[in-house]
Amino acid sequence: MKVKTILVSQPEPQTENSPYLDLANKHKVKIDFIPFIHIAGVDVADVRKQKVNVAQHSAVILTSRNAVDHFFRVAEEMRFAVPNEMKYFCTSEAIAYYLQKYVVYRKRKIYFGNNTFQDLIPLLKKHKAEKYLLPTSDVLKPEIPRLLKDAKIDYTRAIMYNTVSSDLSHLSDVFYDILVFFSPSGIKSLLENFPDFEQNNTRIAAFGNTTQQAIKDANLRLDIKAPTPKFPSMTMALEAYIKEVNKK
């Protein structure tokens, strides 16, 4: 079946140079962006129940902008003045620069990796004397605690925000040719919103191994995979698929 409509389970890109826009224009397909999940902050009382004492830590590991926002939110609600000496270890340069929302960037000790948690490990090892705080959501990639344990990093995980399924009831009578997912939480949201979901002719695209496994675990059919050596981005994988099926 030809592809005419695509639903991407993420917020709409805020840039005019989005590859999704190029894809839509080039192949005359309609692409909608509807987040299947959203973030909800954990109440400070519940953070305290985890026996997390922010003041006992000298460094913070930040894996996302959400982690940044909720670390400073919790600190403020706990009436904890984050000391200037606090060190920040970020998985990417973009997250490091996002810290400017809360701190004077050039006056802080900020370190960053090259977009993967694995890249951050050598930096953490260089500062092994630090007591690290890891603000996370209730959903955490298994590789993160494994890498920290293997590197013998002294850290405390603090669940400061939750990944919550969004209300998708407005989509109950809407059909898309392709559904695009980027996390297992997106698959969970699909099934929570539509427990009787039948895939039929709907194609499912997934980015990343954990998302692809979640689709298989849900007994759904995986039609489009990314990244691959040939298609490192989701838009490249989608375009190749569209070219193939729409030419028939």
Q: Key features?
A:
single chain; 248 residues; alpha/beta; Rossmann fold; 2 domains; five-stranded parallel sheet; 9 helices
What does this molecule look like?
This protein is an alpha/beta fold and 248 residues long. The chain folds into 2 domains: 5-38 and 175-191 and 201-246, Rossmann fold, CATH 3.40.50.10090; 40-162, Rossmann fold. It is 34% helix and 22% strand. The chain has 9 helices and 11 strands. The protein has helices at 19-27, 44-49, 65-77, 93-98, 117-126, 143-150, 184-193, 209-217, 234-246, and strands spanning 5-8, 30-33, 37-41, 59-62, 87-90, 109-112, 132-137, 155-165, 178-181, 203-207, 224-226. The longest helix has 13 residues, at 65-77. The radius of gyration is 20 Å and the shape is elongated. 30% of the residues are buried.
